[in-house]
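Lab channel / #folding
Pinned by the channel admin:
"Please post every new chain as: sequence first, then the structure tokens as a reply. Keep commentary short and put observations after the output so the thread stays searchable."

First post following the new format, from NK:
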Amino acid sequence: MADDPLPPLLDAVLSVGTDLELRTTLQHIVDAAADLTGARYAALGTADPGQDGLIELRTPGTVPRTAVSLTVPIRVQDEEFGTLHLADKGKDPFTAEDEQLLHVLAAQAGIAIGNARLYEAARQRERWIEGAAAVTTALLGEGSAADALTTVAERARLLADASAGVILQPTEEGGMEIVTASTYDDPGDIVGTTIAPGSPVLDQLLGGEPVFIDDSATDPRMTTPVRHRFGPSMMLPLQADGQLIGTLALPRRRGDRPYTSVERLLATQFASQAALALVLADAQHSRELLAVFEDRDRIARDLHDLVVQRLFATGMMLESAQRRSGADDVHGTLGKAVDELQSTIQEVRTTIFALQQPPADAPTTFRGKVLRETAGAAALLGFAPSTQFAGAVESRVPERTAGHLLTALRRALASASRRSGVSRIEVTVDATATLPDGREGVRLTVYDDGEADDPGTGTTVTWQAPL
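Reply from TO:
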């Protein structure tokens, strides 16, 4: 060491406080202690590794068995944080002056560690708050209940730096089952895993209590067949307004650092907020479903009015036909009446089919997808296009052909919406059509009564493809 120890000590004291990241701060302390005393080996061990999620930090190399060592405790406020170990000063032993310098360095290190802890806790809290806000935003958007649980599991896994994010829900048998999992790999073999009734941890989970585990593979409370993969774990209740939705489990890999007390607290708060967001999302979904049902009631009333009007008009035509004496006139009027009745029947069938579609899900059938396109066009047109189907469209139209037909339908409806004077659109999908070359095919016809080059004729768009 230099004759005057103050300049090196001042440099060492300043160096330990140059970074707010805890692990970097501790490494600065280890390096500064080695430089200050001339030791070839320095290490810092924490009294409670689980509190900060740290392992021992040291300078490169190993300490000789015969080396004389020097040990100095580090305290953060009134708490013992850990111990600084120095060894192997070469031929010279450690002196009282070395020990005194280390005590000064340890005091400054305690202040730096305290500041780094506060900074790290603030950063963690900010990340978890932002994560909870992102989950709430995602859950209150569009998506199914399964997607909502997956969103919670995946976001929590990333925030906790866990190996997996898992959602368990109660089963009818009294156990719990993994219904959703987010992992780095394929979670397929995890989903469906159950905690059988009688498991020591089950009473706590069903009671809405958090469970913290140091090592899932060896903890006797863990009984699932996948427990051998994981080490430290948190199992947190998803509970809001007394309603237990399930449990959020966040296991880390075997050998990973344990969860700190701060991480446990923040994850527990995240689970509570996520549970509330799930309840709100479910309530919003119920309100949207109610709105759909109310809209269906309106459609039913409109359908009733339409049917009554058409039937009344048809009756008037038939009555008129009875009063006419010309055979040709009677034949034409009756034919028109029959066509109108058939159109009315087709309209009723189509509307009833649309009302039978699950309101919360996108249509999966070809017929349902066609109806979705026409219903979407109604928002621009101000009226609903008439849609008719001929033949077994579900079984006869291949998926690839159906995709091309839907594209053609969108274009035709968009073109019709841009024409002036359109008050009626008729969409027909015919799976019994015969193409010009004689092959069986499907034909899409979209007619609108808007302005066209030939007045009074409207516009007809036709698309067809072989089956």
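NK: Residues 164 and 183 are 5 Å apart (CA to CA).
TO: also worth noting, The chain has a mean pLDDT of 77.
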